[in-house]
Specification:
The complex is a heterodimer of chains A (235) and B (238). Chain A has 235 residues and is mostly helical. Chain A is 67% helix and 0% strand. Chain A is globular, with a radius of gyration of 17 Å. The chains are: A mainly alpha (235), B mainly beta (238).
């Protein structure tokens, strides 16, 4: 059991820089698409249906790959680097917005730095090198493996993060009542659990077969947001 | 109804393209519509309503080295529910050889009320192949809420993944028409341009809900949402 490690990594206070990102909420608020709690609820349902399955499945698949490597240290480095590289390329092909690719890699880089220092491991070094960092789900999967968590737990943290990032941004952007926002998250908990379980269940599949849900406005508003001169959140 | 259509385009050795194979079966009829250019143009003619629940339609396309093929359709296809709730399926599988070009520019897919439709396209491009690929999805006919539809597109270039996109709409998916996905837009679509000879265009904003984005690889994707099919086509015209 690694209950405390699980809570540490899921905690919004884990120093991975996630608080700098609104996951598209800032752009949705600026466009007038989200103005109140009901709008936030619709936004979060969309994030949970579209972004979370992809993020959680890539996190879980990375975790599974890393955990297998940890159990079988005799496997050569290239055995492991190939699936990591394949996960990286498949996720890259699912992230059509260059602004979102950069946001994912910057968050991955920050998470990797925090992970390396919190749960030192040789696993981190197996991730494919990229000047902007590894994609966030890959960094999360490896960190979860280094922390000794299960594949299911890694997927749960990923899905949970998809919800809590924009939810806490909403309090700052819209001045929503934090109690009501927490109540909303509690109401969505069951749906979040289901998405996480479904993601963990496909973690063993080949990277090509992992979910590829696209949300047009996520890409479009990320690109619009990237052109702003002044913004509160990085994405 | 199950149907298979197959198109094989080859360079004719005189700078043009000949259709080595052009075979359809109801409701997937194919017509070669020569326009005097080096590109062979084929029109898909739906000879029945649909796709209807239970239909399983498959289109196979092969573009050889140096050949150029353009596929269009004469009308929008309207995904309709079957009698017993069985899903309908349209599968497109295309390969393009080096120096070949495929332009896939059909009319819109309309997801009618109650439909359960899955459109899956898989494109394999050899290094040096060109592609123009348009997908347009309309959420319901006039004044109608759509059924459930999934439009999945997978493109590989030179053996590596270039684009993996799966758009799901309809009442079966919470949040599908909300502010994170379509924002109430009734039309959405994308236009993928793969051209190894051209430098990918930098990101640019084409409208309040339309952008052009360079992918990782020799490709650019225009993605848009719009209030209707007409406005959408304005963003995705090719």
């Amino acid at each position: 059991m690694h209950r405390t490690a699980y809570l540490l990594l899921a905690d919004g206070r884990f120093p991975s820089g996630g608080h700098a990102h609104s996951s598209g909420l800032e752009a949705a608020v600026a466009a007038g698409r989200v103005t109140d709690l009901a709008g936030l609820e619709a936004f979060l349902h969309g994030r949970l249906s579209y972004a979370a399955p992809v993020t959680a499945a890539f996190t879980a698949a990375t975790h599974l790959t890393a955990a297998r490597m940890g159990r079988a240290p005799s496997s050569t480095e290239s055995d492991v680097k190939v699936p990591f590289l394949s996960l990286d390329r498949e996720l890259e092909a699912r992230t059509v917005s260059p602004a979102l690719r950069l946001a994912s890699r910057r968050q991955g880089r920050a998470l990797l730095r925090a992970g390396r220092n919190t749960w030192p491991s040789e696993l981190y070094g197996q991730l494919p090198k990229h000047p902007d960092g590894p994609h966030q789900p890959l960094a999360l999967g490896v960190t979860a493996a280094a922390a000794g968590l299960s594949t299911e737990e890694s997927a749960q943290i990923a899905a949970y993060g998809v919800l809590t990032g924009p939810a806490s941004a909403a309090v700052r952007l819209l001045g929503l009542d934090p109690y009501q926002v927490q109540h909303l998250l509690a109401r969505m908990a069951g749906a979040c659990d289901e998405i996480a379980a479904a993601a963990a269940a496909v973690a063993h599949k080949s990277p090509q077969e992992l979910p590829a849900h696209a949300a047009p406005l996520a890409d479009i508003s990320a690109e619009l947001h990237a052109t702003w001169e002044v913004r509160l959140f990085a994405s | 109804m199950r149907a298979l259509a197959r198109i094989v385009a080859e360079a004719d050795g005189r700078g043009g393209t000949r259709l080595a194979r052009l075979r359809g079966e109801p409701p997937l009829q194919l017509r070669h519509t020569p326009d005097g250019s080096a590109t062979a143009t084929v029109h898909l003619i739906g000879s029945a309503a649909g796709p209807l629940g239970g239909d399983d339609l498959r289109i196979e396309i092969e573009v050889g080295e140096g050949a150029s093929l353009c596929v269009r359709s004469v009308a929008a296809s309207i995904a309709l529910p079957g009698r017993d709730g069985t899903p309908s399926r349209t599968t497109v599988v295309a390969t393009v050889a080096a120096g070949g070009e495929l332009r896939w520019l059909p009319e819109q897919l309309v997801a009618a009320a109650g439909c359960r439709h899955q459109a899956t396209s898989t494109v394999e491009l050899a290094g040096g192949a060109r592609l123009l690929w348009r997908e347009e999805l309309i959420c319901g006919r006039h004044d109608e809420r759509p059924g459930d539809a999934v439009v999945s597109t997978s493109v590989d270039y030179g053996g590596a993944p270039l684009l993996r996109q799966s758009l799901t709409i309809g009442p079966g998916t919470p949040g599908w028409d909300g502010p994170a996905v379509l924002g109430g837009a009734r039309a959405t679509g994308s236009l993928l341009l793969v051209d190894p000879a051209a430098a990918p265009a930098p990101p640019s904003v084409l409208g309040a809900t339309a952008v052009r984005m360079p992918l990782t690889g020799p490709a650019t994707l225009v993605s848009a949402t719009a209030p209707d099919a007409h406005v959408l086509r304005g963003y995705l015209d090719a």
